[in-house]
Amino acid sequence: MANTILVGAQWGDEGKGKIIDVLTAKADIVVRSQGGNNAGHTVIHDGVTYVLHLIPSGILRRGKVCVIGNGVVVDPIALLSEIEELRKVGVGIDNKNLLISDCAHLVLPYHRLLDEQRELRKGRAKIGTTKRGIGPAYGDKAARTGLRISDLMQPIVFSKKLQAKIRENNSILEALGAKPINYRDVNESYLAAGKKLRPFVANTVVFLHRALQRGKEILFEGAQGTFLDIDHGTYPYVTSSNTTAGGACTGTGVPPHRMDRVLGVMKAYTTRVGEGALPTEDRQLANMLHQLGREFGATTGRARRCGWFDAVATHYATMINGIDELAVTNLDGLDRVDSIKVCVGYRLNGKRLEVPPCDALQLDNCEPIYEEMRGWNQSTSAARKLSQLPLAARNYVKRIAQLTGAKLSMVSVGPMRAQTIFL
Ligand code: GDP
Ligand code: IMO
Ligand code: MG
Asked: In terms of Cα–Cα distance, which of 406, 276, 420 is closest to 9?
């Protein structure tokens, strides 16, 4: 399988967790390179549903090593509770199967409060963040004022830096009308968490390079999706990291020439949670999916916005990420739709666009140009081979892969491992 970067080709929640879990069977190491616990990756195994936020989705497979890379922002309290929850349901986690980079930045309570306050102040212009403090944590990293896991491993250094940071952030919080936070409480709880996390902390760059030298295969687990990328997404309605393929290199220290392929995961339709343009949004489709109990956020429980498949977006995603192969998920979500729309272009001020515009307002004003395809009106969830799909469903997946411009290699027809078709 070689070293694979897996990215979301849309706005997140494409089903990356499920596909990672399936692919981990053949990989040795699964590494997260960006994002934090804003992510929610669902994996269903033996009838149990796991939602992973910081821990890579390979954790349910024995004998695999999961790595939280340097590019991830780690909330140590959230990470510990994730580890404990998994242990409670029998998933073994120790430093043989989980490593955390000492260079990863920390998410602190003032990041979460600032995230909340900034959203409140924006009113209707809010981003609709997960309120996990991700933006402010990456903001500190870029401003070179962040605290890292390596600081947390040195209690005296950590406490001193934390005190200064809390003083500075309390004055900002107070100016915003929010309550200041207590240094002692944060210091105590973070140091206690640091003590518990110490066994997992390592130089993960060196670990990954040694593993590569021994011929191990690495799966790079993207979080969020292409259009939430801080550079290439629908700015400012984005997250604060590089969710696109390049982020896998910077966020892990594995260089580009060691990457063998990029796999893009995309739903057979489009969803988005949070604010920002979604050109193909369709209320009827959303109602139908929500009535089936589908498309509720794995992290915040919010109902996801839904729309038709947007090939302008996924084609652009193929270009930016260098997607070689595609995994189409949630095909079964369209099982009961008579006529399916596919967006093949945008119209803006009378002109046809083949790529999404950079500007948020312009994207908001884009009208989708649709092609219509026949639905199949029967269940696809039992199919295990492409030939077992109804002809109209086969035509549909082939058409969206063709418009996206990459080779179709997997089709997912349900949330379970087995509900996967390999081509
Ligand atoms: P991620 O963030 O990309 O890992 O995706 P999420 O886990 O947030 O959301 C994807 C949802 O779709 C989860 O509830 C998955 O269990 C589910 N899922 C993934 N693939 C399929 C599929 O092919 N069919 C169905 N019905 N559900 C799927
Ligand atoms: P996974 O990995 C879908 C969205 C938020 C918001 C924007 C910024 O499960 O695909 P943030 O909290 O990151 O500052 O929020 O990004 N968002 C996601 N949407 N899936 C995710 O992760 C997301 N992580 C963040 O809803 O619009
Ligand atoms: Mg998700």
From this structure: 406
